[in-house]
Every structure is written in C-alpha cells, then in structure tokens.
Design brief:
Number of strands: 0
Helix content: 55-70%
Structural class: mainly alpha
Number of helices: 3
Order of helices and strands: HHH
Strand content: under 5%
Radius of gyration: 18 Å
Shape: elongated
C-alpha cells in the first residue's frame, strides 16, 4: 500500500469522525414543526445562515462532500 493511500485513509477516517460530531451537534428539525407555515419568520429564521446552526449545516455539507470524494478516489483504483 502506497504512503499516499495511507494518508488518504487517515484523512477519510478523520473527516468521518468530524461529520459524526457535527451531525450530533445540530438541533433537530422537528422543533419548528408546531408553527403554522410562515409564522416562524423571526430574526433567527431569516438569518439562519449566519447563526451557529447555519454554520454547522454548511460545514457538514462540505465535509460530507469531501468524504464522498475521498471514498471515490480511494476505490477508483481497485478495479
């Protein structure tokens, strides 16, 4: 096994652990289900992308994309 492949596996494991942690830190989506459609338009609802929850969602998406790319890159040479 080449050293590059080992490094990519280590990065994949670290990214997987980070994704798991980020997902566990996020709030559940069921918290806002009691509001009638559009009634929950508050300051936090409009600026969710700037809040901590918005940042967690953004970083989760980035790391999941990186995890998928690493998985494909590591498995493309097996065939």
């Amino acid at each position: 096994m080449s050293p590059l492949r080992v490094v990519l596996y280590v990065i994949l494991i670290l990214v997987s652990v980070l994704v798991t942690g980020l997902i566990l830190m996020q709030e559940g989506k069921q918290q806002g289900l009691g509001a009638i459609s559009g009634a929950a338009e508050t300051y936090w609802g409009k600026n969710k992308g700037r809040s901590m929850e918005g940042k967690l969602v953004k970083w989760t998406a980035i790391l999941v994309t990186l995890m998928i790319v690493l998985s494909i890159a590591l498995n493309i040479t097996r065939f």
